[in-house]
Amino acid sequence: MNTIKSKQLFEQAKKSIVGGVNSPVRAFKSVGGHPVFISSARGPYLYDEDNNRYIDLINSWGPMLLGHAHPEVVEFVGSVLADSFSFGAPTKREIEVAELIRELVPSIEKIRMVNSGTEATMAAIRVARGFTQKDKIIKFEGCYHGHADSFLIAAGSGAATFGIPDSQGVTKKTAQDTLTVPYNDTQALEACLVANAHEVAAVILEPVVGNMGCVIPQNGYLQAVRRLCDAHGVLLIFDEVMTGFRLAKGGAQELFGVKPDLTTLGKIIGGGMPVGAYGGRADIMDMVAPLGPVYQAGTLSGNPVAMASGLATLKIIKNNPQIIEKANRNTEQIAEGMRMINTKLGLNYTINRIGSMFTLFFTQKPVNNFEDAKTTDTKLFARYFHEMLNRGVYLAPSQYESLFVSAAVQDADIQHILEAHEDCMALLIETEA
Ligand code: KE4
């Protein structure tokens, strides 16, 4: 692929934008090389500034479940643009979105719209702390909940698993209130709850993890987390920013039949426009201003243009159950096709797949938590990433990210992906030998 324009644009971007990107993972730091600059996208395809076409398997990190520029979404958003872009006042459309989300996710009795997943998770732990009058939260190694201080915490050592800052600028005091335990380990969670009895406001987790690569809860794990939270008087927050409206119309909580106290949403909820939301039990959410003492606000929260994009997207998902099914089937064909090719080539790399999320891990170990994920050969992944990019397949530029397949992918695209995969893996074997 000739990507000379992207290379030049990256050099130019770095003069004004930190690292040349507005979000770190886009810089290709963990895979090397330079990012491709996207000019447009349609359906399953991205087009870069050098007019190369890529089959998109990341879909803006999840939002574009329908595929890019879905005609009904584009038409509806276009129809509201002339009405001005923002009022800073309540609108009817916000009610429509809220009522539709409550219909799709019944555990959400009250909701608040915000502008990103980070805002949603930051606000959710604030209201959990306000409601319970406790300070600590428990998160899980390898789960990511956005860039709020309370989440940029590495696992501390010792039973209390006190956190330590995982980013400059996060204070030790903040880190003390975030406890971290391994995912898929109920004993570790129980020990942490016991060691911090009566101090924990909430447990927050990705019900299916995307941020260490795709990691699936083991049988009964989410149900055990729910039981432990109930036994210890701790709120359960499902961070469904990735899984919401993707794994089922009602998200992972519908798929696994586990009801959280609070849910955070993002990505698909805005159909690609900046939207997040947090919501759940009314007795908890009514703590939020202007009703209660927990403050949270936002100039562009519930923005009418973003609500139009989200409303159109969610209506399509609600009224066309085959959309999620198609994305799931696409994913099954891609992931199982890759697994068969790997077996034919004598490779036994782990592939985790659920719904329309999957990750090919360059390790032969099962991957059920972050320790397992860290056994991957990230150098080999980086070579695979670039070989696939050169063949017109756009993967996440990091081993520790799930892929998100859209319903727009067609059979010919799947064939292209699998041919590219076989080509790449054969090349890796040849050059690694
Ligand atoms: P945003 O603030 O990026 O909208 O959402 C934060 C967030 C919260 N919770 C979960 C489970 C998430 O996956 C995310 C954001 N996901 C990353 C992908 N790993 C977004 C990509 C990026 O950071 O550029």
Essential attributes:
Aspartate Aminotransferase, domain 1, 16 strands, four-stranded mixed β-sheet, 14 helices, 433 residues, single chain, seven-stranded mixed β-sheet, 2 domains, alpha/beta, binds ligand KE4, Aspartate Aminotransferase, domain 2
Strand content: 15-25%
**What is the alpha-carbon Rg in Å?**
21 Å
Overall strand count = 16
Ligand identities:
ligand KE4
Secondary-structure element order, N to C: HEEEHHEHEEEHEHEHEHEEHHHEEHHEEH
Distance between the termini: 26 Å
SS content category = alpha/beta
Query: Please, how many domains?
Result: 2
Outline, from the CA principal axes? globular
CATH class of the largest domain: Alpha Beta
Second-tier CATH architecture of the largest domain: 3-Layer(aba) Sandwich
Largest sheet geometry: 7 strands, mixed
Uncertain spans? none
Mean pLDDT: 96
CATH superfamily of the largest domain, by name, is Type I PLP-dependent aspartate aminotransferase-like (Major domain)
Number of helices: 14
Can you give the helix content as a percent range? 25-40%
What is the CATH topology of the largest domain? Answer: Aspartate Aminotransferase, domain 2
Query: What is the spatial order of strands in the main beta sheet?
Result: 4-12-11-10-9-5-8
